């Protein structure tokens, strides 16, 4: 469980490659960090075997969680998994450059719901997850059931039988996929509000083949799209995939049509983030005085301020940090503070 990095393979390579983009993929129901993205015949895992060649300066990661609906050891819901995803990302993106790096999410099925919930939390609890909220450049969904799945009714029945045998409560995760469930309705509405406040690119891939043993698509086309039926998609690229729900995010070759489209989407999202300069200026920067244009020197004091307020766990410590600067009147205390604030206004 947690985050696994496919590329680069070690810290030395991470520094040498000058990584400029983070990509994290989240699997769906009954999946895991590797099996979900692996084509069974070729055993190729495109996030590990193909994507680093097309995007060598991207750090490619996968996030794992317990999403097994039957005989699961955990009955944690979408919110708990979303919080775990945020925690892992914050701990992975600790460096100063990492916190400002563009971030793209990729989700299959239930993984897309975890992503949506995580981004809603990141916006609401910006004190802890500001870097995730501000760095998110786009989301790519593969068969995410935004409005539920008709197959969830069958799954819920099986889960009830399993819970009777194993003496476990009915999994909340499977219930959340049931069409009309209030959790999904609320999540989708909140995500639309979140995205409206801070728009970024969204790509929705949807399946067009029925899985063997079923009479309908696992996730019907209207359910796999964020844009409400009857409305024109203004922020969402909608892409059909000639595959089943299970196979739509598995590619045997880097020549696969859907793989090429996915790479194109990732590159477009990244280019857009660079053009929009996602390193947003601090909109709450309000200082009553400006720095004297002739201010100079005091490098020793500025270094002490940096060490005490910035370098020593800035953005990690939850307690307010204090630094007392004292001296005779007219010795430059105010100008020193103004200069420090100006230098770090975007933090």
From TrEMBL:
Q: Which compartments does it reside in? A: Endoplasmic reticulum; Membrane; Mitochondrion
Q: Taxonomically, which superkingdom?
A: Eukaryota
What's the protein called, per UniProt?
Protein SERAC1
Q: Which residues span the membrane?
A: none
Report which gene this protein is encoded by: SERAC1_0
The record's similarity note reads: Belongs to the putative lipase ROG1 family.
Cited InterPro entries: AB_hydrolase_fold, DUF676_lipase-like, P-loop_NTPase, SERAC1
What Gene Ontology cellular-component terms does the record carry? endoplasmic reticulum; membrane; mitochondrion
Q: Which UniProt keywords apply?
A: Endoplasmic reticulum, Membrane, Mitochondrion
Coiled-coil residues are none
In this protein, which residues make up the domain named DUF676?
23-152
